[in-house]
Design a protein that fits this description.
The chain has 159 residues and is α+β, with helices and mostly antiparallel strands. It contains four helices and eight strands, in the order βββββαβββααα.
């Protein structure tokens, strides 16, 4: 049996003491999450987090480091998620850009506000990423290596 966690990225963006949070409709619930989503086939992790942030917030993320890599299994669905969380700054905002389907709006919320909404967080990953960010956890983007399929060294390793 093959186990395949779903690969996702998330952006942990803070200004002063508040975090960029999206409010999204999942099923019949409204939940809070960082700008986040699935990595598309052939997409680098950095390209994915920049794309997801733009699609969900109409803002352009400039990633500068990793906050963490998290593996979580949803006890209700049984699905596993491997989340790569980035941090960085926003370079521009396009107020005329439509947000992804399901995104109700964006908010800047403090840790205390997120704790007050804990029953509305999409997953425990939201608070864990915030807490790691607040603890100063940062890893260099150089840890990531995206090898294109036509890379000669990667082909040699497979053979």
């Amino acid at each position: 049996m093959t186990w395949k966690p779903e690969l996702t990225v998330a952006a942990v963006v803070a200004e002063r003491d508040r975090f960029l949070i999206v409010e999204e409709r999942v099923g019949r619930r409204l939940v809070y999450n960082q700008p986040a989503g699935h990595v598309e086939d052939g997409e680098s992790l950095i390209d994915a987090v920049v794309r997801e942030t733009l699609e969900e917030t109409a803002s352009t993320l400039v990633p500068d480091s990793l906050v963490g890599i998290y593996l979580w299994k949803n006890p209700q669905s049984g699905r596993s998620y491997l989340r790569i969380a980035f941090t960085g700054s926003l370079s521009r905002h396009d107020p005329g850009r439509a947000l992804d389907d399901g995104i109700v709006g964006t908010h800047w919320l403090s840790r205390a506000q997120l704790l007050a909404y804990q029953n509305r967080l999409r997953s425990p990953l939201v608070m864990r990423c915030v807490d790691d960010w607040l603890a100063g956890v940062r890893f260099p983007l150089a840890l990531l290596n995206h090898l294109p399929p036509d890379d000669l060294e990667s082909r040699a390793a497979v053979v």
